[in-house]
């Protein structure tokens, strides 16, 4: 398990991370969500050791992070970068060799990975000759080249088409089920929602929420209910403590506290047939919006500056 | 993944990592067309330059065609004096040859002249021809250094130029490479695997090997040029200083490379590189100007041969003219080596501290400060 405790970091006197603490477990995908300038990239760079934290500790399996442990981290930086003019096969081989593979092993590994990511036949092309999406795949291969123990991926899906997303996801899942910690940030909330078991929401340099996805969904956002009835359900509008979001002849979606919702159900049963009654969990984008709106509302004048300087 | 989890590999130690980085630098360069073409052009220039110089300067050795009129018995003597006599029957015939430009002058016997010969030119006094006919005493110079003036200047320029061209060329490669790695953020991936020190060392090692290779190729080209043009003695005189030049070149270039890499690591965009590398550029060009301006000023050359930046050019030059005591090159080499080690340490500090800072150029003070 990768654990961050009270990580703080300031840039020229301005604190951009305040007591960031969270953990990412082995064997599952952990999503890291937050708005622009929330501190995702900074946090990831600190985990990688590319940036030093002002204070706080990071532990891996309860041991403080050492540089040999870090060398088994796979990293995909937010700004993509490999040698533009170098053949992609050679680049990945080179990176594998830097991680300690022998020349032969490295070449085999590079070829295998690139094929796995759908780049068969492009191995002898220079990076700059590939499309953006394909360059992104090469970048993923670069992060995976040394069978990392911990994967830190900054926006791994940005710029990928749905097919490519699926390919990358299946590779990441393999890594996770082999026991790796996989932490990735993303703006694409639908992807995060679909993939992640655990979720961390960060805003304005603070962890706003962290935990299992389902738990977060029940705990945050507004709970809504869907009620299907045999007869007209117009009466629900008049029920105290209920706010109707959507209404059609036999179906109503409403927001209410648990008690009020139960009363609505009782009333519906009294009035006749009930075809369904389902609590609707908020989706991630709603939770995300809730948090970020809060963050924006309590925005201090220098938040903008922070964002610009990120 | 494709293979089962292997035994955890130990990350690459600094030594092998350095070699690997160096290998990439070298193979990338050797495969770049620009590098090969510029080296080929330089080789052609060196060989061609030497051949052309010797061709034009030895033009005078060709026999001068002259027309001879009524010059019995003395024709053989003319042959050995470097003429190509063309006997003409009459004065008119000879004059025609001269006017046609087939001969340079007419030589005829003249009893009125103290030498018994008269030389006639077309529109200028044929003093060159007269000189060739003259009997001259054997000449000798007491202070041979003065006589070596032109050669001295040429050798000084040669060493200076080779050092400057190669150091600037390879230095700029290091600058471009460093900034490219920083700009593309590949440096973040590299540093996840190896230390900044190993990355810097590999970069310096690789580019130094390339630069040295270029210097050796150019030296070989110069030797070939000298051999082809038959200037064997000059070549013999140059061999030892050239070897010393190579010996000095190694620490000298490492010094330059370290400066360029550290300077380049301060910025993250090629456009910003201009200002930060100017100091390093000046230091690389300095030895060339020093030797070109002061090559016959013994005091200035002695000082230059101990200053680390100009020593790689000035010291071999002084050795070429036997102006140095046996221990001087060793002392100068030691000074150079110590400076190089110090600068490399400084450079490693700057490099590791500024490599991961992107955006605005990093100020030297920040790069040198202990913080972070």
TrEMBL record, chain A:
Classification via InterPro entries: AAA+_ATPase, ABC_transporter-like_ATP-bd, ABC_transporter_ATP-binding, DrrA1/2-like_C, P-loop_NTPase
Membrane topology: Peripheral membrane protein
Sorted UniProt keywords: Antibiotic resistance, ATP-binding, Nucleotide-binding, Transport
GO biological process, one term: response to antibiotic
Broad class of where this protein is predominantly found: membrane
One GO MF term: ATP binding
Family under the similarity heading: Belongs to the ABC transporter superfamily.
Protein name listed in UniProt: ABC-2 type transport system ATP-binding protein
UniProtKB/TrEMBL annotation, chain B:
Bilayer-crossing regions: 34-56, 153-174, 211-230, 242-264, 327-348
A single GO cellular-component term on record: membrane
Signal peptide: none
Topological category with respect to the lipid bilayer: Multi-pass membrane protein
Location of the ABC-2 type transporter transmembrane domain: 33-347
Keyword Membrane attached: yes
Keywords: Membrane, Transmembrane, Transmembrane helix
GO MF term (any one): ABC-type transporter activity
Subcellular locations according to the entry: Membrane
Membrane recorded as keyword: yes
PANTHER family: ABC TRANSPORTER PERMEASE, ABC TRANSPORTER PERMEASE PROTEIN NATB
Name the record gives this protein: ABC-2 type transport system permease protein
């Amino acid at each position: 398990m990768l654990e961050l405790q009270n990580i703080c970091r300031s840039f020229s006197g301005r604190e951009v991370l305040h007591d960031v603490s969270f953990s990412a477990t082995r064997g599952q995908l952990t999503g890291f969500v937050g708005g622009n300038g929330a501190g995702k990239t900074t946090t990831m760079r600190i985990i990688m050791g590319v940036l030093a934290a002002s204070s706080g500790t990071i532990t891996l399996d309860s041991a403080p992070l050492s540089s040999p442990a870090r060398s088994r981290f796979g990293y995909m930086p937010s700004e993509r970068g490999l040698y533009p003019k170098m053949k992609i096969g050679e680049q990945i081989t080179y990176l594998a060799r830097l991680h300690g593979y022998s020349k032969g092993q490295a070449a085999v590994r590079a070829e295998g990975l690139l094929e796995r990511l759908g780049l068969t036949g492009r191995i002898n092309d220079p990076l700059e000759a590939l499309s953006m999406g394909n360059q992104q795949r090469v970048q993923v291969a670069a992060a995976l080249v040394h069978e990392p123990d911990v994967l830190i991926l900054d926006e791994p899906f940005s710029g990928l088409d749905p097919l490519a997303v699926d390919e990358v996801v299946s590779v990441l899942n393999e890594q996770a089920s082999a026991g790796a910690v996989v932490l990735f940030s993303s703006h694409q909330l639908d992807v995060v929602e679909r993939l992640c078991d655990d979720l961390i929401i960060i805003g304005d340099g603070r962890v706003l929420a962290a935990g299992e996805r389902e738990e977060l969904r029940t705990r945050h956002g507004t709970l809504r209910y869907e009620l299907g009835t045999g007869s007209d359900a117009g009466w629900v509008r008049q029920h105290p403590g209920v706010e109707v979001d959507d209404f059609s002849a036999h179906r109503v979606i409403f927001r209410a506290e648990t008690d009020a919702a139960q009363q609505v159900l009782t009333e519906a049963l009294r009035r006749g047939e009930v075809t369904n009654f389902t609590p609707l969990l908020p989706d991630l984008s709603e939770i995300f919006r809730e948090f970020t709106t809060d963050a924006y509302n309590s925005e201090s004048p220098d938040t903008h500056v922070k964002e610009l300087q990120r | 993944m494709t293979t089962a989890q292997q035994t955890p590999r130990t990350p690459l130690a600094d030594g092998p990592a350095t070699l690997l980085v160096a290998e990439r630098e070298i193979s990338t360069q050797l495969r770049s067309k620009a590098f090969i073409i510029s080296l080929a052009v330089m080789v052609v220039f060196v060989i061609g330059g030497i051949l052309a110089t010797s061709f034009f300067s030895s033009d005078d050795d060709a026999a001068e065609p002259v027309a001879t009129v009524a010059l019995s018995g003395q024709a053989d003597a003319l042959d050995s004096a470097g003429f190509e006599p063309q006997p003409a029957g009459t004065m008119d015939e000879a004059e025609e040859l001269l006017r046609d430009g087939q001969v340079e002058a007419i030589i005829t016997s003249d009893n009125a002249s103290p030498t018994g010969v008269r030389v006639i030119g077309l529109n200028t006094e044929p003093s060159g021809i007269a000189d060739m006919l003259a009997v001259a005493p054997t000449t000798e110079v007491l202070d041979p250094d003065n006589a070596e003036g032109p050669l001295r200047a040429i050798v000084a320029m040669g060493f200076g130029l080779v050092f400057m061209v190669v150091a600037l060329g390879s230095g700029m490669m290091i600058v471009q490479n460093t900034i490219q790695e920083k700009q593309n953020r590949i440096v973040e991936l590299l540093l996840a695997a190896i230390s900044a020190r190993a990355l810097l060392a590999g970069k310096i090692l690789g580019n130094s090997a390339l630069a040295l290779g270029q210097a050796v190729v150019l030296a070989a080209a110069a030797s070939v040029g000298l051999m082809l043009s038959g200037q064997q003695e000059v070549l013999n005189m140059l061999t030892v200083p050239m070897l010393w030049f190579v010996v000095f070149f190694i620490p000298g270039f490492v010094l330059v490379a370290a400066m360029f890499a550290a300077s380049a690591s301060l910025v993250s965009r090629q456009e910003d590189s201009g200002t930060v590398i100017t100091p390093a550029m000046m230091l690389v060009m300095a030895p060339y100007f020093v030797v070109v301006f002061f090559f016959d000023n013994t005091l200035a050359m002695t000082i230059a041969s101990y200053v680390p930046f100009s020593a790689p050019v000035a010291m071999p030059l002084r050795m070429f003219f036997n102006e140095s005591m046996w221990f001087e090159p060793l002392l100068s080499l030691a000074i150079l080596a110590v400076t190089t080690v110090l600068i490399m340490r400084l450079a490693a500090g700057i490099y590791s501290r500024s490599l991961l800072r992107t955006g605005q150029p990093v100020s030297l003070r920040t790069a040198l400060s202990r913080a972070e």
